[in-house]
Amino acid sequence: xxxxxxxxxxxxxxxxxxxxxxxxxxxxxxxxxxxxxxxxxxxxxxxxxxxxxxxxxxxxxxxxxxxxxxxxxxxxxxxxxxxxxxxxxxxxxxxxxxxxxxxxxxxxxxxxxxxxxxxxxxxxxxxxxxxxxxxxxxxxxxxxxxx
Length: 147
Prior knowledge:
SDR_fam, alpha/beta, NAD(P)-bd_dom_sf, Rossmann fold
């Protein structure tokens, strides 16, 4: 029996990298893992910042298992493909994914996490500690939000 046997874990950004490694580790420890990602080749989902997607991330595990024990907020990006790095469109998109979607998912999950005495885990990056070249300050916001 694993450390997370029968626990329900939502992992955003789980189609590759840290998120994918987290889902494999949680699954090995017996967790029921809810996947979410932007890579359509790996996981067919919509963008994380869409309200319907976030609500679905909460509703589906509740329907299937009746609870949520852990939310791993891992999804994030540095720019929107096809947009100038310093454009307001890029800023709005990056903020929506990196900050607003995380906050909304936590807001939706809190009532359910309280019932299970569950937790959220926020994944940031070393980009938060670099000199502000681009939008690294988003990573600092993430670090603050998750404390």
